[in-house]
Amino acid sequence: MNTDSTQVVLDFEKGIVELEEKIQHLQELAKDEDVDISNEIERLQQKLNNSLKRTYQNLNSWQKTQIARHPARPHCLDYIKALISDFVLLCGDRCFGDDEAMIAGIGTFEGISVVVIGQEKGHDLETRMKHNFGMAKPEGYRKAQRLMDMASRFNIPVLSFIDTAGAYPGVDAEARGQAQAIASSIEKCFEVKAPIIATVIGEGGSGGAIAIATANIVMMLEHSVYSVISPEGCASILWRSADKTKEATEALKLTAQDLKSLGVVDEIIPEPLGGAHRNPQTVFENLRKALHQHLEQLLRLSGEELKKQRTAKFLAMTRNLEK
Question: Of 19, 46, 66, 306, which one has the fewest beta carbons inside 10 Å?
Fold first, then answer.
């Protein structure tokens, strides 16, 4: 995973980063000098572990949102590289053009042919511009629909990876039918006669997320967020002030833990201590196990059973949220 953002320091992590820098300095010193400072390194490492555990066991909603947005966090293409073999990228919506914010293709997961759809934010300025910061335009959602049609026709499971602040709100996107494209994508999800498993790996923002997350199984990483609107957008509408962003975050109930308790998501995938960006391989393996388990169960169902299960799931969800 290539990134220029590993040095981003969140406000609540400053003490942790200082400890990490001290440990790194001592480790380099131990290589250059003929002195034994292993005891001091071990002491600082224990202090670091305790600090990480204490901090990450008591995160509030705004802090979790910051982690979900961390630029060094693994993105869609990282998960594809780690989990999907023989991946073939498919481009274009057969109507207007291609949208590089929406990744779509076919590959193999644990010996099973799969269709993969996801939003890619990019890791540096060049790739962020290329992928439009993960904010898809109508052609992105139409490309997703094209792949879902293929999955349904050939009975190929769909794995979607959600990581977007929302659909692109620009004039050009609206002119090409952004709202209709999102609505059609949600509708298409309900029509697919193959398993769909969606995983929120970072941000799950508004209709831009649910357009590819209307699935038989919806999972979230431990420090991801999923909401109808961004905290900043909510604060600007309800309080007309950016100063209320933290209050908006709490009110939105957007964390994985909140949404699991509300029945919106089915499973929370554990992240390594300190977040997915500190140890991507651990979160890749955790997600691999969960995907494999759910795929095995869903592949036993017929196409019609999968459609009925998906529809019943979301109808039940709306009834639960109304209570």
Answer: 46
**Per-residue b/e over 213-227, b at no fewer than 16 CB within 10 Å?**
bbbbbbbbbbbbbbb
What pLDDT band is residue 82 in, cutting at 50, 70 and 90?
very high
| H and E: helices and strands count for the chain | 14, 8
What's the predicted TM-score (pTM) here? 0.90
CA atoms of 197 and 265, how far apart (whole Å): 11
Claim to verify: residue 118 and residue 236 sit in the same structural domain: yes
Domains of the chain: total:
2
Q: How much of the chain is helix, strand and coil, in % rounded to 5?
A: 55, 15, 30
Decide if 266 is inside a domain.
Answer: yes
Chain Cα centroid distance, residue 172: 26
For helices 76-83 and 280-298, the axis angle rounded to 10 degrees is 70
Q: Which residues pair with 224 in a beta bridge?
A: none
| 104/28 same-domain check | no
| Amino acid letter for position 47 | K
**DSSP structure class, residue 114:** E
215-222 average pLDDT score: 97
Task: Tell me whether residue 126 is in a domain.
Answer: yes
Say if CB 270 and CB 223 are below 8 A apart: no
CB atoms closer than 10 angstroms to residue 89: 14
Retrieve residue 247's tokens. Answer: 């209050």
What CATH number has the domain bearing residue 287?
A: 3.90.226.10
The model's pLDDT over 85-133, given as tens digits with 9 standing for 90+, comes to 999 999 999 999 999 999 999 999 999 999 999 999 999 999 999 999 9
Q: How confident is the model at residue 2 (pLDDT cuts 50, 70, 90)?
A: very low
Residue 255 and residue 112 share a domain: yes
- Domain coverage including residue 52: 11-58
- Asked whether residue 174 is assigned to any structural domain, the reply reads yes
Say whether both 106 and 239 belong to one domain. Answer: yes
Strand partners, 199: 161, 219
